[in-house]
Amino acid sequence: MIERIIDKRKHDLGGGFEVGRVLPFHARRTVGPYIFFDHMGPVDLAPGIPRELDVRPHPHIGLSTVTYLYDGAMTHRDSLGFHQEIRPGEVNWMIAGKGITHSERFEYARANGAHMHGIQAWVALPEAAEETDPAFFHHEGGDLPTWEENGIRGRLIAGAAEGMKSAVKTHSPQFYMHWDMAAGSQRILPAEYTERAVYIATGSAEIGGQKLHAGQMAVLQPGGDVAIRAEEAATVMVLGGEPIGERFLFWNFVSSSRDRIEQAKEDWRQQRMKLPDGDDLEFTPLPEPKR
After folding, report:
1. Residue 12: what pLDDT?
2. What are the phi and psi torsion angles at 254 (to 5°)?
3. How far are the Cα atoms of 51, 64, 224 from residue 123, in angstroms, in the given order?
4. On the CB side of 38, how many CA atoms lie within 13 Å of its CA?
5. Quick one: which H or E segment has residue 38?
6. How far is CA 287 from CA 71, 101, 277, in A?
7. Structure confidence by residue, pLDDT tens digits, 64-90
8. If we measure between CA atoms, which residue out of 132, 114, 115 comes closest to residue 123?
9. Element (H, E) at 264
10. What CA–CA distance (Å, rounded) separates 232 from 111?
11. What torsion, rounded to 10 degrees, do the Cα atoms 178, 183, 184, 185 define?
């Protein structure tokens, strides 16, 4: 039932803060509309950490960003004027559409210290919505359906699955779930969508008779229910949806059009995109080709 296993690769976001990058992968660019998947931490940040570890203001087009934490806290600011702290089990969902800028800073950790652990994902917008107006939504509590069964606690972060629907605004058929699995527990992932993947954030699990460890994503073959069994206590993310079509990706820009990517690069290079309210004194420069 497994089409491919992808191991996370170390990637420095700048300033020394490293993440484990899973998607995009050279042999597998997307899973449904999910075009980007970074595993942050787990890492302990001491009080007084330097600002260089923060994710400075930067732009996006053509996608929605999804921030989801297991531990710690982050502070979001964007060019629409939103200022939102995110904590474990909550969702920051930012629709970039025709263009937005934002920053994500470790203000809580800088003041108090923190154990940081979470997932940053991007969802490519369908062509008809690529130039939609940007928007930001914060969700918690009843917006995100939760359940408990046979040693498993689950949360539907986005989309629809198994008769449940998240309040998060999505633009194409998809699902994104978080399962906390006790050792020995098992759950079936039904074949509701064409493309599906399972990511092991902590612990280990057996999928279709194959054991996966923390930091590995199993991209599943289309069709057929799949049994996922926790070999030990495990944190598991399951995600996918219907194929979104070919997308071009450069830095923080996603589009079905190469020309649109070039336009976004020039807009940022010429500083034509408004910086976040309350965080406009610095920004991340456009990466330029190495000579």
Report:
1. 78
2. -130, 135
3. 28, 5, 24
4. 14
5. strand 34-45
6. 30, 16, 23
7. 999 999 999 999 999 999 999 999 999
8. 132
9. helix 258-269
10. 34
11. -30
